[in-house]
Amino acid sequence: MRYRLLKGLQLNGPWQGKDKWTSETQGYGKKLPKGKTMNELVWSCDFEKEAKAALNPKCTNDQPKAPNGKTGLFYKMDIDWDVPEITSAAWAWMEEIEKSAVRDNAISNKAVTFKDAALRQYLNLMRPSITKIGCAEVLCKEKGVNKYRAFCLTDQAPLKDNEVVYEAGKGGCDKGETCPKGLTCKKGLCAKP
């Protein structure tokens, strides 16, 4: 998903997958602009431990508090016919862009800014500056219901209203953009050497 956004392939908003484009079948119908660069995202065992410490093992509905300087992403599902897993949480966060569109006034030819609370989890995951993520999960069985909770941490503070999510550009370091200092271009993403 991060690669799709970088390359300008991510549709902005609802899309029904029809072959012929109409405003009724394709929803909003626009793509988000190509990004300038995107950092490679790697798993952090330390963040996983922090997320586990913050996540209530009793499967409450309370969102855990993320440590200062980190973004917390929380997911909860109560279901009686399946056992969710961490991919369920990631999928739900990625699907936010399929249910809501980034507002036109948040998109310019220079950047995409944060103005949409309904896209909070998605946009925080799509920030090119994040480099680390770690997650924890807990499952409680209560009266025949699987109560699943997941909590992930990334290495950037949460987006604030009107903050730049990403800069628009050519579509990555393999398209002529320069990676941040200390990172090198690896398959279009900026990564640690």
From TrEMBL:
Gene3D superfamilies in the record: CAP (3.40.33.10)
Coiled coil: none
Transmembrane parts of this sequence: none
Top-rank lineage group of the source organism: Eukaryota
Domain spans labelled SCP: 34-145
InterPro entries attached to this UniProt entry: CAP_dom, CAP_sf
SUPFAM superfamilies to which the protein is assigned, alphabetical: PR-1-like (SSF55797)
Name by which UniProt lists this protein: SCP domain-containing protein
Organism of origin: Ancylostoma ceylanicum
Taxonomic lineage of the native organism: Eukaryota, Metazoa, Ecdysozoa, Nematoda, Chromadorea
Encoding gene, per UniProt annotation: Acey_s0346.g3142
